[in-house]
Amino acid sequence: MRISIRVKWTSLISAVILAAYLIVAYVAYQTVDNVASASVAHGFYIKLIWVGIIVVIAGIAVSFAAVTMVLRNIKAINETIDDLNKKPDSDSRIKLRKRNDEIYDLTININKMLDRMQAYTNQQKEFVEDVSHELRTPVAVLEGHLSMLQRWGKDDPEVLNDSINSSLQELKRMQSLIQEMLDLTRVEQIDNEYLSQTTEVKPLFKQVYNDFKMLHPDFVVNYDDDIQDGSEVRIYRNHLEQVLVILLDNAFKYSGDRKEINLAASTNEALLEIVVQDYGVGIAKNDLKRVFNRFYRVDKARSRKRGGNGLGLSIASRLIEIYKGTITVESVVGSGTVFRIELPIVQDGIDADQESDDTNSKKSKRNSKKARSH
Ligand code: ADP
Questions:
Q1: pTM beyond 0.70, yes or no
Q2: In what residue span(s) does the HAMP domain sit (predicted)?
Q3: CA of 322 to the centre of ligand 1 (A)
Q4: pLDDT tens-digit map of 124-163
Q5: 246: CA distance to ligand 1 center in Å?
Q6: Is 66 exposed, middle or buried (0-12, 13-18, 19+ CB in 10 A)?
């Protein structure tokens, strides 16, 4: 029972019992006083006083039990918080028996908050570990080249030239790594201002296609635009462009000898679907699940050579997730890869899938009303 209801009922019942006792005591006192002898009346008054004392003691005992139960639960909460203060990364959580009261609800909320905070701290810790691991290689390469130059490269123009070129290359890699890491952190901080933005898909899709066609004249890019004129999706324009650039960049980067890419987009009433397909190296089944993980590269050496940091797909998938879309991948090693994105279409300022959910729930409410009235 809820504590507020329990307190109300306990007070009400105590008041009623006390009032009943006082009325009965008064009536009995009047009657006994009129009809009984002095000694009988005396015995009766003594009994009346004892009953009164028992009623008061029972009341105190009931209140004491109720307060003790509440305090025991608060003590459990306090002990867990103490535990966490001593060991912040501990898995300790408040354990209470399931009850339908406010303290139990509070416990559930505190436990949920602790889970969220722990997940966030773990994420930050992993991120710092990943970043330092990723920066270790370019820093070590740079250090190697500079030490070589310091020892004997200064006087050898060939070594000097090679080392300077390699060092510059590593510096560029670090620059792109830092830029992508910043992009990833920015994605985590997207605020409501962006979440409410919409983008007209057709012109953006066309512009990205033209940019890539110009950048890769040696490729055949098949372009299939089946987007309804004026279709809008709920995503900030630059974010959709960023996702398309990441997928297309990868398609070009990981294409083998067959320099052909398919870029297609279509809309229906509820969704925009974008497909980016290449006929390149492909991704093995075991790696498919992990390509969206931060810093994951199927072939570290090959990806590094092509300037990959393993962050592009995690940025893309996080962006799509934030805007309530989906991103999926299918691939066959040696045959190629297909990435598919779906995003909700916006109609009259309302997300189409939400609208159809609302319509469905309205319909089902109407149907259940009808069923009841039949
Ligand atoms: P990177 O910057 O290394 O390309 P991504 O996060 O974009 O990082 O991709 C993660 C990994 O997924 C890549 O290192 C690559 O191994 C694999 N990958 C991504 N796209 C493709 C693709 N179109 N074809 C083959 N492998 C791909």
A1: no
A2: 68-122
A3: 21
A4: 888 888 888 888 888 888 898 888 888 877 778 887 888 8
A5: 9
A6: middle
